[in-house]
Amino acid sequence: METMTGDFVRIFDTTLRDGEQSPGATMNTGEKLTIARQLEVLGVDVIEAGFAASSEGDFDAIRQVAAAVREPVVLSLSRTRGPDIERALAAVAGAARPGLHVFIATSDIHLRHKLMMTREQVVEAAVWAVERARQHVDHVEFSAEDASRSDPDFLCEIFAAVIAAGATVCNVPDTTGYAIPEQTTALFRRLRTGIPGGDRGVWSAHCHNDLGMAVANSLAAVAGGARQVECTVNGIGERAGNTSLEEVVMALRTRHDVFGVDTHVRAEHIFAASRLLSQVTGIAVPINKPIVGDNAFAHEAGIHQDGVLKYKLTYEIMRPEDIGRATNTLVLGKHSGRHAFVDRLRSLGLFHDELDVNEAFAAFKALADRKKSVYDEDLVAIVARKSSHVAERYELAGFECASTSEGPPRARVRLRIAGQEIEQEASGDGVIDATYAAIGQALASVGDHVPALDRFDVKSITRGADALGEVSCLVREEGRVALGQASHTDIIQASAAAYVAALNKLAWLRAHRPGEDDPHGP
Ligand code: KIV
Ligand code: ZN
């Protein structure tokens, strides 16, 4: 296996693969590229860009991410099947540092009820796949899915076999979020010391958060010798999510006295990455989320405020600026020039070669005309909005709405559907309800299916009376879910735009992910 120089823990980011499995988190290729570029700026070591065999859309996104980033290794997930491996290899072929991530389940539950395979057959499939992958790429990671519920003796056997076959990284997933930190440390120690060649290579932890212990288990794995942690920005992922990148990075940094290891992550770009992902996916960051939540550095109790004013370290173990949360957040206004705008984007890590600066600057000017103060979060919203380069089926051409004491609120909406403008009027329980009803009627008038609206959230993302309101809504149809998100100083406009964004995502999903292959299937 590979040996790492210095005592570094690799950060393997799977926001674009495992993270994307969060309900509604599907990203189109433009959005994935935007996130991948931000991950490179952030300094992650490995980007798992998708699961190439699952769909054309995923294949294409991996291919484009592979071409766009230079520093991190770019991986595709792959089952141990020949066609999966061929597809994954083709997807990463253009990467500066390509790699494959091959996995198969190892727990008896999975073998008996999902794979219908014996242990011998599983070892044979794993070895075959690792050998096949190693004929083409130097970086091959092997994962034993459901490792935390697998027989440790069998884990020793299969990891020894894949190491001999050429696996360069061995990953030990806690697929169901079942592990307990003490057991995790012990398991990593046993694997590293009990397997021929196990003490030389890179051991990796991949934890899910079902019992709220993903970060604790990842740190416990590091204590047991893991030198790669797999995680997602904001901890997004299936069910309760994955290990949160920002939490694990800041825990390793803040408690260097305990762990004694570093990462290559440039922590000052954490906040922008967190907000960018939230804007792109529409998944809000909980206000009390460690490190990146709105309240993560807010001191409310008088005694705390008093202490912090006297000496910050009385109640602060990290500084907001360590993760790029500017204390002086008023950055730009309507008189700011292009230079100041680009400068601020650069320091947030949001500037890259592919960004259309003229377009982004025009959006900034339009916002600064409506709003006195433009904050970092506003700039993130501008970049996120510019990231979805897909031809969209629906476009909001205009709307009008009225709420009076004389009758029900009404809305008139003009929607362009595949280029044809349609006008509809409707009433509702409130102006937003009326606007959504009018949009639904426009869809129905051209025979488009109107999905169910499952969730609708509004919050303010910046301060003051002219704050940007952020709306996210989730629509659902036949097993597909799509999240739309938009921000505007006018909350009705943000609501209409978020609904249209969700409808566009759903239309994209229908076209690009018709019947996706499940990575956890046999
Ligand atoms: O949780 C899991 O087991 C996975 C593997 C595919 C690594 O995501
Ligand atoms: Zn996972």
Notes on the structure:
There is one protein chain. The chain is an alpha/beta fold. The chain folds into two domains: 10-265, Aldolase class I (TIM Barrel); 394-512, 2-Layer Sandwich (Double Stranded RNA Binding Domain), CATH 3.30.160. Helices cover 39% and strands 20% of the residues. The chain contains 17 helices and 16 strands. The chain has an eight-stranded parallel beta barrel, surrounded by eight helices. A three-stranded antiparallel sheet has the order 11-12-13. Strand 6, helix 7 and strand 7 form a beta-alpha-beta unit. The radius of gyration is 24 Å and the shape is globular. The model has no long low-confidence stretch (mean pLDDT 90). The structure holds 3-methyl-2-oxobutanoic acid and zinc ion. 3-methyl-2-oxobutanoic acid (KIV) binds at residues 18, 77, 103, 143, 145, 173, 175, 206, 208, 519.
